[in-house]
Write a structure and sequence with these properties.
Layout lengths: L1 H6 L4 H131 L4
C-alpha cells in the first residue's frame, strides 16, 4: 500500500469507485440507454418518413405526367370532334346560303319578269290611248273638236 500512499491515494478510493460505478450504471441504463433508444427510434421514423415522402413525391409526379398525357389526348379528341362539327356546320351554312341565293335570284327574276310584263301592258295601253290623247291635245290647242 505504500505505492498507493506515495501517490496520495487512500482507502476512500474504493468508496469513490463504488459510487462512480453505481452512478455510471444507473445513468447508463436509466438515462442514456432510453435516450439513445428514443433517438434511434426518432431517426428511424424521420428517415422512414423522408423515404415515404420521396416515394409519394415520385408517385405524385407520375400521376401528374399521366394526367397531362390524358389531358393532351382528351384535348386532341375534343379538337377532332370540334373540327368535324365545324366542317359540317360550314357545309350546312354553304348549303343554306346557296339555297337563299337561289331563292332570292328566283324572286328577282320573277319580279323582273312581272315588271317587264307590267311595262309592256302599260306601253300597250299607252299606245292604245295615244290617238285619243293626241286628239285631246290638238283640240285643246285649237280649241275645237276634230
Amino acid at each position: 500500500m505504500s505505492f498507493f500512499e506515495a501517490l496520495g491515494i487512500d482507502h476512500t478510493i474504493i468508496l469513490q469507485f463504488v459510487l462512480f460505478s453505481i452512478a455510471f450504471f444507473s445513468l447508463a441504463f436509466g438515462l442514456f440507454k432510453p435516450y439513445v433508444a428514443a433517438l434511434e427510434l426518432r431517426e428511424k421514423k424521420t428517415t422512414g418518413s423522408q423515404t415515404a415522402a420521396l416515394g409519394l413525391k415520385d408517385e405524385a409526379q407520375d400521376l401528374k405526367k399521366n394526367y397531362e398525357q390524358k389531358a393532351r389526348e382528351l384535348s386532341s379528341d375534343i379538337k377532332t370532334v370540334f373540327d368535324t362539327y365545324r366542317g359540317e356546320a360550314q357545309r350546312e351554312s354553304e348549303k343554306i346560303i346557296a339555297k337563299a341565293r337561289s331563292q332570292s335570284q328566283a324572286l328577282i327574276d320573277e319580279s323582273r319578269s312581272r315588271i317587264a310584263k307590267e311595262l309592256a301592258e302599260a306601253q300597250k295601253k299607252l299606245k292604245d290611248e295615244i290617238p285619243s290623247i293626241t286628239q285631246l291635245i290638238v283640240s285643246k290647242l285649237l280649241s275645237k273638236k276634230v
